[in-house]
Amino acid sequence: MTTSEALQKAPDTPAASPRQGTQLDHLAALYRQMLVIRRCEEEAARAYAQGKIGGFLHLYIGQEAVAVGAIANLKPEDYVVTTYRDHGVAIAKGMSARAMMAELFGKVTGCSKGLGGSMHMFDAKNRMLGGHGIVGGHIPLAAGAAFASKYRNDGNVTLCFFGDGAVSIQGFHEGVSLAALWKLPVVFICENNEYSMGTPLSRTLSVEDVSQKAVGYGIDRDRFFADDVLNVEHRIGEAVKRAREQSLPTLVEVRTYRYRGHSMSDPGKYRTSDELDEHKKRDPLLRAREQLEKEGFGAARLKTLEDEVEAEVLDAVKFAEESPEPDASILEPTTYDGPFAA
């Protein structure tokens, strides 16, 4: 199969929108998205250990409720910009599990034809603007996307995700300062997972409450824990509404936790097993599943949903394994073709 044939055969069907059906169905759809992300990340970790994925791999396990809850507020036309811990955000924004997994495997059917890899998930059709490897460097880019929306008066909103380690970076100040000055429709979401790589908050931040930094820029702020995906959706929804209707930015600190190390090369020995176990008791996936059971979603429906997710994820892995690697046919168009090509 040639590169062009593989690209034509690669389906790019995102998961069903979590905006349909009753309130219980809505929670089930959010749970489904989180489960797809969790299982994709687990299979990615397995593939990495088997040598099928190279380079860096930063997993989103434990933080799924942040992306899923936040992006549930968006329209398809809205933009998302995020960090190198981007697989879950990409899926929540509409990227298919196949396209994401194939990109991790470096295959031509991936979202960036296998040329971007783990840290550079990009999907222009779904307004997923990356995946960026430089800590804090993408925050001004999000301000730029929001500026374009305000200039065009198109009513679109930009979500910008970043970690707690980025708030001490110059790019954070530049992006938030300009967004405040120009009153841009952007929501800055700090995914505070309590560790900048392997360094705890007490050694990286003079003020633990990241949201307080909003006061210095004269913008609205919020701060909460991401234990409940519906609460994430509601709280981020207020900021999205402010951005869309008033063209005003907001800084939101969402306290979350990653269950794995910073990357696959990090064993995470800087924290105790008791700390990890305590956080796992508040797992947003577990909480969503328990709520579905409690409110009568039904064991049979829940099993069907989970079986569908398992089939989707295993299909994505199989698809990635069987897809071809990029060949010389894409060298010229990916190097020279584009908006500045002659």
Automatic annotation (TrEMBL):
**Which residue ranges does the record assign to the Dehydrogenase E1 component domain?**
33-328
The UniProt entry, under InterPro entries, shows: DH_E1, PDH_E1_Alpha_Subunit, Pyrv_DH_E1_asu_subgrp-y, THDP-binding
Recorded protein name is Pyruvate dehydrogenase E1 component subunit alpha
The reply on keyword Nucleotidyltransferase is no
Q: GO annotations under biological process?
A: pyruvate decarboxylation to acetyl-CoA
Segments carrying the region annotation (Disordered) are 1-20, 263-284, 320-342
Q: Which cofactor does it need?
A: thiamine diphosphate
Q: Which UniProt keywords apply?
A: Oxidoreductase, Pyruvate, Thiamine pyrophosphate
UniProt organism field? Labilithrix luteola
Q: What class of enzyme is it?
A: oxidoreductase
Q: Known EC number(s)?
A: 1.2.4.1
Primary role: The pyruvate dehydrogenase complex catalyzes the overall conversion of pyruvate to acetyl-CoA and CO(2).
Assembly and partners are described as: Heterodimer of an alpha and a beta chain.
Catalysed reactions, semicolon-separated: N(6)-[(R)-lipoyl]-L-lysyl-[protein] + pyruvate + H(+) = N(6)-[(R)-S(8)-acetyldihydrolipoyl]-L-lysyl-[protein] + CO2
One example GO MF annotation: pyruvate dehydrogenase (acetyl-transferring) activity
Question: Per its UniProt entry, which superkingdom is the organism in?
Answer: Bacteria
Cite the record's Basic and acidic residues compositional bias ranges: 268-284
